[in-house]
Amino acid sequence: MTTADHVPVSSAKPRHDILVSVCFGDLSASPCAFDAVATLGLEVAARFRFHEIIVVADESHKDVYLPLIHRVENLRLFTVRNGTAFYRRRVIAAEEAIGDVVLLASATELPGVNAVELIERAAELQSAVLVTRSSKPTSRSIGAMLVFLGRMAGFKVNMQDLQTLALPRTLLNQLLAHSDPDLALRFPPRDARVPLVLVGVAPGTDVRREAGLRRRLLLLQTLLVYMAPRLLMAVTLTSALLAIFGFLFGLYTLGVWFIQENVAPGWLTLSAAISLTAFFLGVSTTGLSLGLQQLLSRTKQDSLDGTVSEVNRVDLFGQVASDLNIELERSRGESNRTPAA
Q1: What is the spatial distance between Cα 176 and Cα 170, in angstroms, rounded to a whole number?
Q2: Is 185 within the bounds of a domain?
Q3: Chain CA centroid to CA 128, Å
Q4: Residue 69 CB partners (closer than 8 Å, separation 6+)
Q5: Rounded CA separation 89/58 (Å)
Q6: What CA–CA distances, in Å, run from 39 to 46, 110, 148?
Q7: Dist. CA 104–CA 185, nearest whole Å
Q8: Is residue 23 classed as helix, strand or coil in its secondary structure?
Q9: Do residues 128 and 195 touch, judged by C-beta distance below 8 A?
Q10: Residue 133 structural domain
Q11: Could you tell me if 217 and 276 lie in one domain?
């Protein structure tokens, strides 16, 4: 399914069952961006009775965004310090949202997506809905490296994915509780507890990329940090092999010393130094890496819910309420009876 065209929402009856929040973490102060937000506000208002639009802007430029408050209904404007990172702005907007379904949007991507459809699909499927381009192999070396590191770090990194993401409230709370919500709200974790539905843009739709080289380098650094446990495991294994090699080479050196009579001058001394150095470095590095892994295991917190999904739902509270109502009606009927004369 593609989000090719904006479905006319005026023909559908407005929904009153959910509260919708649309968040813009980095809205540019341009007339085109303001027009896109105003158009989206009309579409959302026509389909959802209860809605809000959240915009995060720099403190020094808040006066530029004030006319947008009078132009867009139910718009909430939040200011942050100048220079706040892009991914951090998205987290701030998501934390301030109160909707049952939250849409993290980008003004430059609105022409290629159907925001109303994304919100309704997220509410219906109770899963994250992410907009993506047609899947093509990443040609740039830094993009391919980001995809590989993301897979190793446990995130679904794909440079073809857009920044527009719709999340139900339960799933949003789990991602906000992640150890790095900035990255989790951009690239969802590779976990069965985070269901993800991909929705493609319309063929031929021109969606501008906003990710520059600086942002990709920061993403590369973050992914390398998240690979620390795996790197420590590799360091532990290699250092243990180095310690074993040093120990075996030391035994070989002793064997040559006892068996061979004619040995090249300096060979025994050099071999003994090499074996002892390798054994010491291997053992010490193994101990340090194991200690760091122990510290990481104690500080690591799995913020996601332990339950993947519920296959069969039982309305136990409804049954209890029904039984209580029956008992209440029976007691009332017995109290209304008058004793026979």
Answers
A1: 10
A2: yes
A3: 10
A4: 75, 77
A5: 10
A6: 11, 10, 38
A7: 9
A8: strand
A9: yes
A10: 9-225
A11: no
pLDDT tens digit sequence for 4-41: 344 344 456 788 888 999 999 888 888 888 998 999 99
Tokens 């813009």 belong to residue: 24
Whole-angstrom Cα distance, residue 236 to residue 252? 24
- Hey, what are 27's tokens? 């809205």
Please check whether residue 245 lies inside any domain of the structure. Answer: yes
Give bridge partners of residue 58 from the DSSP assignment.
Answer: 80
pLDDT tens digit sequence for 264-316: 888 888 999 999 999 999 999 988 888 887 887 776 655 554 433 444 444 54
Calpha distance 132→167 (Å, rounded): 15
Which single residue is written with the structure tokens 């290699």? 238
Say if residue 125 is in the same domain as residue 192: yes
With vertex at residue 309, the alpha carbon angle to CA 175 and CA 20, rounded to the nearest 5 degrees, is 50
Residues 191 and 237 in one domain: no
- Give the distance, in angstroms, between the CA of residue 50 and the centroid of all CA atoms in the same chain: 26
Query: Distance (Å, rounded) from C-alpha 339 to C-alpha 118?
Result: 64
State whether 295 and 147 are in the same domain: no
Q: What whole-number distance in Å separates Cα of residue 283 and Cα of residue 240?
A: 7
Q: Residue 85, SS3?
A: coil
One domain for residues 212 and 94: yes
Q: Is residue 339 part of a domain?
A: no
